[in-house]
Amino acid sequence: MPKILHRLARSMDELILFSLAWCFVLAAVIASPLFGLSLEIGGFLAGLALSGSFEHVQIATKIKPIRDFFLTIFFVGLGLNIKLDGSVVPFAIFLSMVVVLIKPIIVWLLMRLFGFKQRVAFGTGLMMGQISEFSFIMVGIGARMGFLSSSNVSLVSLVGLITMVVSGYLIIDKEGVFRVLKPVLGFIWKDTSKSDPLPAELSDHIILFGCHRMGRSVMVHLLKSREKILIVDFDPEVVEKLKNEGANVIYADASDTDVYDQLGLSKAKMVISTLKDIKDNLVMLSEINKRKSKVSIVVDAESVEDAVDLYKAGATYVIFPHFVGGLHLGDLVRKGVREKGDFESYRKYQQEVMAGAYA
Questions:
Q1: Which residues form a coiled coil (predicted)?
Q2: Model confidence over 123-140: pLDDT tens digits?
Q3: Is the domain defined by 206-319 classed in CATH 3.40.50.720?
Q4: Model pTM?
């Protein structure tokens, strides 16, 4: 399948047409008397086969309007199946509370047992606070085969709607929910795994949040300038690679307020953040300001609106990648760098940084 899709990828229309045809044909075959399964299972298997290709992101993007249309029809049908009577509603509310509360707690406990940090375990558990779409598929199959009554279908449908709505709002404000529940979670299961401590000899250093792509280039440039750096990153692979290179790195999330006590802010001379998430940057600025630090803070922004918010939050300087690129090019022209030979030294230095950043 990946080879076929790769050949068809030269034409987006052919790729999408083939993908849709594949889904409908496989769904029909799976639902035929030969297999006797449902159309839903067939559609799932068709999507599973497409997911192994490099083009699956393009396919998913192009069929998004179709998906949203059928999703609307699905929920309309779901609502039509719900029959609100006195016997169903109380039990549905009880089951919804079990799903929204008990299921995330179980996932949180399992994640903590496997050694994940408090924030990661909580976020994962919160994502599980709803029933799966497969519940609707299984209930539909059971109803068609006569195993489930209409009241059973109504019960599962109502629980699904309630849990999706409630968990959806909780996920939107998961950071706020985590801040409220953090003392309770810490009392139940305290974080014993501390981040790597700040080296005692490290002072007058630069703290770098994020060391992927842009952050990696910044790190290489600072090291060439013989600066002392403390890196904070939340990607285990990046952290492992940096440790193997002998870098001073702490595995931590920028939105984890406890980590700022381990960064030696009183000894640092600058903080640089290449994080793309403005929420993480705002938390970082807030925590540094709470500690009355006078350190300069440089952050990255994706839009003018984000830059305004970051400046209001206390950023010393906000950079835009496209603005910095234009500024650098204008500076080269201002210095008289125009001929091919004039660019040689800049090109050589750029290649050295790129070799260190993307090796």
A1: none
A2: 899 999 998 877 877 787
A3: yes
A4: 0.60
